[in-house]
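Entry 14: structure prediction run for PknH-like extracellular domain-containing protein. Input pasted below.
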Amino acid sequence: MASRGTVVPLAALVAAFGLAGCERSAEAAGGLASPSARAAVPAPSPQSAEGQLATRPDNDLFALLPTQDDFPPDAFLSPSPADASGTGKRKLPETDPPGCATGNPAGFVANVVAAALPSDESDRRTVVVAIGKQTAAQGHAGQIEDWLAKCGRYRTPPSFGGVEGEETVTLERLKPPALGLDEAVSYEQRTTGNVRITGSDQENEVADRVVSVIGGLRGVFVSVSWRNDDDQELALQLLEQLADRVRSA
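Run finished. Output tokens:
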């Protein structure tokens, strides 16, 4: 009999900027609370109030992301600039229904900082913060809205190589927090299934949950995702901090 374990799909690490509906009312969704204690948003300078950041080099956007000092001391950061070698080149899997894979076949990329937070379950305490250039007329949040409307539930091969099986992804729209972002959208992504390493008879159970918030301002999008509810306040504070930096850049 195959043994069983639990694995977390790599797709969770990119859920914050996933592209390709199950929608409920705001009352049922409950929404996400804004950070409990926030500094006042600084008034933008005349220069920062005008223009779009989408014309800036990617390394300028990457510099706006959180650094080690913005996380708990024992957090392990994995920064990934948008122009890193191989970024955006991953081949997307076929899904049922088609076109629901996390990612963008047009080569969408983003600047990302992923942080593993100290915990007995470190693989489940991950906060991912991202910033990137808008790649479509409706903006990144609009692309996410389209994805949620089309792909409320879909089946997909495992999100990492060398593994066989099938995962089921369920998306649920949430009410986004009030952070002053343009066209903000939030959703919960749950992934379940059974997979095994190619050539092995050991079957592993996939069980993961990620919450994401995405919004746009000044021609770029900003986003954050987290797994553990205990990390929601930190995640939203980091997103608000990033939005403030975009406003004053």
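Notes: The chain has one domain: 6-30+52-248. Will compare against the previous run tomorrow.
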